[in-house]
């Protein structure tokens, strides 16, 4: 995505708040006009009040100046309220939009990014994009209004000193342009280091068990030192650059003020200008030079926003599972057929090649093969987590890709070895937002072998993050109870008995002939014992189907 496209995206985001932005701009315009009156009032206070000795006029002008400040403060408060409202709505919109996209994005995205990295990128990008509605952005708008009035005020007071101010503008432009380029490089570096660190951190936390078991905490801490120092160094460089920009700006403004004092003093001593006019001129010069800084800082501001905008919309362009297609096929349970199916995660590295098999409705089928033979890939394709590179997968004679994804997946329950449990109660992890009577839940727990544990802790026992308060066998029994409760016509056991004891395995095998007798069941297993419980066996070897 180019910078122009990123800017268009930002403008599109703001276009939803046109009315509110219009109110803010009107407020800024009124505030600017009122502020332009203050230097003229101050000139009269100095020349006619203090130097002219008119006490009454001085008091009146001072009260007028104070009144203007009060009105400006009220306008600024209204403008800030509207601006904060835009920023809050914008942040919510981006967060909701990214979350909705995240749960629909294709599974391949999650194989390339870990969860910590995804969360970090989205949070950083949303915060940076939402900063387009910060006060600094609208400050630029206000300063653009102010520059016109400031230049008019300068010419009214003295055209010779006005030329001095106008000569100063290109000098300031060159300096600010340099800092904008430097900041863009620094922001790009910081975003890269932040992304790298988030990916490493998520990978490290995910492997905390291995770190402890293999005693590599010292090595990981060394990696932490290296990555954290790079990240902090990047942040430090960015902060110092911002500070140098601010200090340089102050020095330039002070240099201009000094020149105005020198030139103005000559004009005052030559009786060509009043003292109040010099001070008013200095104020007007800030109205001109400050907008120049602000306008030039648009690039400085965007250099922090545009990289995040590009990354955010690159994420939003990730392909989703279910496109907005009008499906004509209604999913219904029936015969499952894999016809000449091939698939590869990477080019020239096929996982499946020309796989053909049929699973009759209501049958029990075992998928057997060594690790890496493609068994789990078959299930991922059946669940439409991935799309075959070649061939067709049919359900009841219809291609599964022609069916609405949500309705299609509602036909299948999966009991896997790596079941994920939400940080919630056993009851809610079994029901998953369905309203189910306790009697039905307890029956499912009994059939899955979980009832003894339920008697000890109750259905409202909290399982912890991903079931950390449970054993592996208990997690699998919850997964089985979940499948029984949802009562779908197709049930997949993906290595579901690999971590179970013999008693649990026998219980699952028994279910094939009781509660699951009329279901289409697919069992992925290594153990040969399952062969006596199924109607057919499909053997895979290195992605090829054995005859």
**CA-to-CA gap between the ends?**
50 Å
Order of helices and strands: HHHHHHHHHHEEEHEEHEHHHHEHEEE
Q: In terms of structural class, how would the helical and strand content be classed?
A: alpha/beta
Total number of helices: 17
Strand order of the largest sheet: 6-7-8-3-9-10
Q: How much helix, percentage-wise, in residues?
A: 55-70%
Largest sheet: 6 strands, mixed
Q: Low-confidence segments, ≥5 residues, pLDDT <50?
A: none
Mean pLDDT equals 82
How many strand units? Answer: 10
**CATH H-level superfamily title of the largest domain:** ABC transporter type 1, transmembrane domain
Strand content: 5-15%
The structural domain count equals 2
What would you say the CATH architecture of the largest domain is?
A: Up-down Bundle
User: Which radius of gyration do the C-alpha atoms yield?
Assistant: 35 Å
Query: Which geometry do the CA atoms define?
Result: elongated
CATH fold-level assignment of the largest domain:
ABC transporter transmembrane region fold
In the CATH hierarchy, what is the class of the largest domain?
Mainly Alpha
Q: What do you see in this structure?
A:
With 547 residues, this protein is of the alpha/beta class. The chain is 64% helix and 11% strand. It has 2 domains: 3-316, ABC transporter transmembrane region fold; 336-545, P-loop containing nucleotide triphosphate hydrolases (Rossmann fold, 3-Layer(aba) Sandwich). The chain has a 6-stranded mixed sheet, sandwiched between helices. A 4-stranded antiparallel sheet has the order 2-1-4-5, covered by helices on one side. Helix 2 (18-51) runs antiparallel to helix 10, helix 7 (159-206) runs parallel beside helix 10 and helix 9 packs antiparallel against helix 10. The model has no long low-confidence stretch (mean pLDDT 82).
